[in-house]
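Table S2 (text version). Query chain:
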Amino acid sequence: MNSIKSALPFTAITAFLSLGLGFESTANDVARFYKGKQVKIVVAARAGGGHHKYSLFISPFMKKHMPGNPTFITQNMGGAGGTKAANYLYNRAAKDGTAIGILLSDTPFASRMRTTGVKYVANNFHYLGGVDKPQGAFVVLKRSGIKTMEEAKKKSVVFASTGKGSQTFILPKLANSMIGTKFKIVTGYRGMAGVYKALDNKEADGFQSGWSSVALIRPHWLKDKRIIVLAANSLSPLKDAPNAPVFRDLVQNPLDRKIVELISNNDVIGRAWIAPPGIPQARLSALRIAFKKMAKDPEAIAAAKKRKMDWGYINWRPQQAHAKLITNSEAKLFKRVRKLINQK
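Corresponding structure-token output:
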């Protein structure tokens, strides 16, 4: 420090020291604010699904790394394909840094699809990061009697869905319209836990959703080799089902391929945690830093591995960029989707 002092004029030294003190003061302010507080994680799904399990898992590690060590608690708010939770976070949740959330991967896309009920702009949320990239997949149980998407064009298979605003409905419906599959989509199941239960009860034989959740929620399906991946809804093959085709590659119409590419890249958002607009910048930065530290914490990594959870830090920047891309994409793409799924 003596050498720096000798090389700098007094005013520069004062500015240099003030800058450091400013950072320290800001960090202390953030810690003081969060000390003794609770931070609510609004989960856009009902209990029992992958989002819920991941949120419960990260909570103690976020507490460990967040200045002031606030307690993170989960609040499940399923409904309307994630729109209910998105509307709440955008308009009603606290904007002081004590409310964050995890939305569905298709929430930004849904904001352009729905003509009523949407009260948020996806790109205005502040993305914090993720801990995995849950690629989507068309999945069937072996009892369905089909093994490929080509066979799905010849035989009808019941797919369970949470509702018409979710990927569990939109993707199978698009497959029917774009490539001629015969999925019969039954809606109304309460979250992904309800979808899995429908398959257990033989009410359905397949679904389209995040592939990584299967190992988390129904690991015995994998162990017993009871399921088949018909196609990956991603821009790249599934690492543990590499022979399954990528849905985009099965689509011939150029405009339809563009739509599928836009949806397939949702895996970068995947299980993204977000903060509502209006949060103070210092607290937003602290949340992002704490999230990265949590994701890279050796204790968290070891615990996730033990639970066979997909785990790897996803930076918030590509998430924010994809939300912006969807927000600014041409209206004709979403008009085309509404036509293909018979949505007005």
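Notes on Table S2: The two ends are 68 Å apart (CA to CA). The chain has three domains: 1-34, 37-129+270-338, 136-266.
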